[in-house]
């Protein structure tokens, strides 16, 4: 395990350089990093998550990560607030949500309730990433908009659009605009 975690730390360091992102992804490192994310020590999990985040900045690695099964473990990490990996999971999901295949995989994992809860109670950075993911999932998906409305997202988005980070304000405002276009909830 220690050797795998040292390798993850090395990949995390190397993945900062853009040229290395392509080579590391093409070499097949992403599945091993996902395995470490699921089964490593806390330090190994953090290094694996940071490497996956860095690698996923490159579009081709987003697909590799999604096809290697990254989304279900990330959503499990979101649902375990005591696990100490929520920041990393949200950051990676926010990057993956910008790719169609990533968006579809995230939607299949039914993350809407936990995303709304993060927007309600999370740290400023986590609220920002959760709002960005929510915007990606709700754009063009009336059913998701209806679900988040039923979860009471409008009030927390209004608060976020006034008090969040600049990016959080933009994403919250965009989701609120999408919600305004959907038929009101039937009473």
TrEMBL record:
Coiled coil: none
Limits of the U-box domain: 2-182
Alphabetized InterPro entries for the sequence: ARM-like, ARM-type_fold, ARM_PUB, Armadillo
Organism annotation: Solanum tuberosum
Domain of life, source organism: Eukaryota
Keywords, comma-separated and alphabetical: Repeat, Ubl conjugation pathway
Protein name in the entry: Armadillo/beta-catenin repeat family protein
Segments annotated as ARM repeats: 69-109
